[in-house]
Amino acid sequence: MSTPTKAVVLAAGLGRRLGLGNAKPLIPVAGKPILFRTLENLAAAGVREAVLVVGHQADEVRLAVGEEFAGMDIGYVESDAYRTTNNAYSLWLAHKHLDQDVYLVEGDVVFDGELLRRLSAADGEIVTAIAPYRREMDGTVVTLDAEGTLSAMLLPAQQEPDSDLTQTYKTVNVHLLRERYLSEEFVPGLESLIAGGGHDAYYELVIAETVEAGRFPVRGVDCGDLRWYEVDDLTDHGAAEYLFRSSDDRLEMLQGMYGGYWRYDLVDHRLLYNLYFPPARLVDQLMDDFREALVHYPMGHRALQMLLGAAIGQPSERLVVANGASELIKILGGLLGRVGLVVPGFNEYEAVFTEQDIHRIHLPSPAFTMDPAAVAEDALRAGVAAVIITSPNNPTAMAVPRADLVTLARLLADGGIRLVVDESFVDFCEPGHSLEPDLAELPGLTVIKSMSKVYGIGGLRLGYLTSADLDFVADVRAALPIWNVNGFAECFLRLLPRYQDAFAASCEQVRRDRDELAARLTELPGLTVYPPDANYVMVGLPQDVSALAVVRRVFAEYDILLKDCGGKSMPDGDRYLRVSCRTPQENRRMVDALAAVLGVAVAAPAGGGAS
Q1: Do 536 and 434 share a structural domain?
Q2: What pLDDT digit, counting tens, does each position of 568-590 carry?
Q3: What is the spatial distance between Cα 136 and Cα 65, in angstroms, rounded to a whole number?
Q4: Pair (66, 185) in one structural domain
Q5: Local structure of 263: helix, strand or coil
Q6: Distance between CA atoms of 2 and 438, rounded to whole angstroms?
Q7: What would the pLDDT profile of 101-145 be if each residue is shown by its tens digit?
Q8: Based on the domain organization, do 368 and 412 belong to the same domain?
Q9: The pLDDT of residue 21
Q10: Within 10 Å of residue 474's Cβ, how many Cβ atoms?
Q11: Could you list the residue range(s) of the whole structural domain that residue 454 is in?
Q12: Model's pTM, two decimal places?
């Protein structure tokens, strides 16, 4: 079959869902407008004439593209009704250009040029690019027979809300239409559709009728292994940006997002999860209340404190419930004055205080262990109002022995200094590490905790502060708005007391997985693996190895996301990795990837088990 030398590109769209005023096809993806990439691909595939159907910001498109682009002649057809019509009408306006073999491309699809070459190489009078359906996709789907011919085509209006689309293919919205099919069936069908009032219809209706009639077999070409994305809204745009950027640019993009990694095809060993909680039954109960939690206001502080107190066994008057621990950390930044920050630690504490109000108390490298007498002496000498320490530490994952924290609290209290202990990961320690039972005996002690991490509810954003100093608790509470916790978080707190056994079991499973992960990492030559008490492991790399370089290679070659400690207040932070514990299978794959990047052999950990 011959290669088409002509293309029609539908570029009249408004792009309302993108919230942008410029022409939708000119939206850049990875630094290049979608339309420019499409035209470059067409030119590389042998196209010599491209006809653009324009509408919204038509003059802007004409100015950007011109009459010639990448060696192709560019023609224009302008729609005067793009605001009230759909793509069938736009294509009908260009029907006189459907007079020879053409590529038909929708202007909001960004794709690899190889896709056009695959269409051209396929047999058939009509060939369409398809890819296996994924949950986040919207639009027309198809099914195939054993020969790769479309057996059914379902437009969005034909899909039921509960339809099982897992065995279907999504249309990429790039087609090759041969001259015979155009003249004998497609153009007459398109004209009939418009004559019948189908100005707001999709041209795919004509192709669907072709599939049903069977006179012209419609060939589906699986392009699921190629890069492509249909950009309809900002979520699509973000996915396309990720897909078409270089590996280093994708990594930088992710690091600037601080979350949402689950939307991308990667394994996240960077953020910190409890993958075994909440259990399915709890999630189902949350879903049962979804609408009510969505439309009604949640309760205020006092009732939330009572719900939390019932879940964790603390008097409600000692508690402040917050939209994640980060909300509380921000408040502490305005209440505590000059502080001693035990570092390395959670960077958010360093971010909320001015540099003049921070006195850093360094845990000595390379052991990163705490001497309570030395910390207290340093704090007293610096004249701070409070000392903040994270235990288990972030990033070392090592917990300060409980007795040492009690000693530190008493030493500081003697000097009139408050101790704030961030226990966000304490539930992953062996039971008995938390200082919460000591609050009454240590009035200068405040405990802060992120529930999001240990309970596996990062999206809910729950955290709390607790102290026996009720005046201080009142000051923190006064800094919060009336409604600071959403209705879904309230529902979670109501259900949590029923699931304490399940939570304890989930933490025990995390401990087993973490210990296996640490053991496997220990078997990699040249690494220093710190004994973890949290759900992550800190790894020291050899002297001449950059952690950032390792993170980049593991991401580029294996789609695994790790965290380097270069941004932490610690000596040689760029030689340390923080590795989040996931499932055993994912942990083993990550260790294998790390070994390959470091060029070392993977040995079976003590106790057996192949990697």
Answers
A1: no
A2: 999 999 999 999 999 999 999 99
A3: 32
A4: yes
A5: helix
A6: 81
A7: 999 999 999 999 999 999 999 999 999 999 999 888 888 999 999
A8: yes
A9: 64
A10: 11
A11: 280-500
A12: 0.88
